[in-house]
Amino acid sequence: MKKHKIRTALIAAAVMFLCSACGGQAADNQTCHISIDWQTTEECDTAEDGTVLFIGSLYYPIVTIEGNEEAADKINHDIQERLAAFEQDTSVREFARENYVPENGGFISYSQDFTLASRRADNNVISFEAVYAFYSGGAHDNYTSIGLNYNTQTGELIDFRELGENADAFRADTFAYNRALADTEPYLDRMYGSPSDEELESVLYAEDKWFLSTDGLTFISDTYALGPYSGGAIDFTIPYSKLENMGLKEEYRYTGPLTLRLQDGLPVSMDLDGDGTEETILTDTIYGSRPDAKDEFSGYLLINDIDVTNYNDELAKLLLDFPWAQCVLYDLEPSDDTVEIAFITTEYIGEEETPLFTSYFFRYKNTSDAAKDCVITYLGKTDGYLLEPGFEVSLTAFQTE
């Protein structure tokens, strides 16, 4: 069921990890050893005939910051208060019992879930995306998200106005970036149309509709806010390289490996092979383009307008089998001049449809060889979700089969 996949995918992206922050931090900050232990609770109501009427679940973290228990306690207390407030709303549970008719078969259990997913955890910031999902009949569930961003040193929630050296200028600059994104074809395809400045600002700059992740500042647009349900939640992400130019304060900058998610149909520029020239990278999913694809869609990767899937068999097969794989530019080895191309795939296994994430890595090199436009090398794959905070991988850890 789709609503179950949404929830389990979020859970799988929020597993326990350990993080030791180092380097590039503000001088007065202490280095933190952070651990996050994930807890889950579930309860259900059943009718006299055994039909499950309602399932309620919580999936939440318990944060430990070694040497700074006070900050960890503040974070955990805030999360617990939110959980308690969520559980106090029993309307969906009551609707389930009211609407259940034993004589009518095929009743689908109503549900109410509160799921937190880890988005960043380091010496500066511990952030989560909190998703409230409920189902009370009809074709699909409904869900809404907020961001919870905590200062690792103090445990206090970070206010958006704190992010920039100049709060008004930072907001204006981020809005200009989001405005430009909203006017691109990939965004227009998912929205009702081009929103007015007032509409866009009221959605993206509503309270708690943002979070800091490993790849930038993300603004949340829930389903129906700017587009139909079929378009899903629409995120607007500004990379840290852009945020620094907008005046993002040093204490909120990200010092981990360069990580940049690509969106279908939206090109980005970056020097991938360290030759001093930026490449233009574009990923896209196209309907009915390759007859040997597993389904009716195929994924493509274009670098400098060249379809590089033609130059690597592993990449071609991967994007045939997983056309919706998430493409990420990721710096595996910060000490060298290259930036790798990664694809994250998701497979659902077992009756519980547990998501299995795999990250595949490729390296690009431009070539002056007349027989080749470029070289794409498959480096290998590793289990896990590349965008998960604390994700670490080295070349020696790759599986190549």
General description of the model:
This protein is of the alpha+beta class and 401 residues long. The chain is 21% helix and 35% strand. It is built from eight helices and 18 strands. The strands form four sheets. Strands 1-2-3-4-5-6 form a six-stranded mixed beta sheet, with helices on both faces. A hairpin with an 8-residue loop joins strand 11 and strand 12 (279-287). The longest helix is centred in the N-terminal third of the chain and has 20 residues, at 69-88. The chain is globular and about 75 Å long. Residues 1-28 have low confidence and may be disordered.
Topology:
Blueprint lengths: L1 H11 L5 E3 L12 E14 L5 E15 L2 H20 L2 H9 L10 E12 L3 E11 L6 E10 L15 H16 L2 H4 L8 H8 L5 E4 L2 E6 L12 E5 L1 H6 L13 E3 L6 E3 L8 E9 L9 E7 L2 E2 L5 H9 L4 E5 L9 E10 L4 E13 L7 E10 L18
Parallel strand pairs: 3-4
Antiparallel strand pairs: 1-2, 2-3, 4-5, 5-6, 7-8, 8-9, 10-15, 11-12, 12-13, 13-14, 15-16, 16-17, 17-18
Topology as H/E string? Answer: HEEEHHEEEHHHEEEHEEEEEHEEEE
Question: What amount of the residues lies in strands?
Answer: 35-45%
The biggest beta sheet is recorded as:
6 strands, mixed
The end-to-end distance, rounded to whole angstroms, is 32 Å
Give the strand line-up of the largest sheet: 1-2-3-4-5-6
The percent of residues in helical segments reads 10-25%
Overall form: globular
Oligomer state equals: single chain
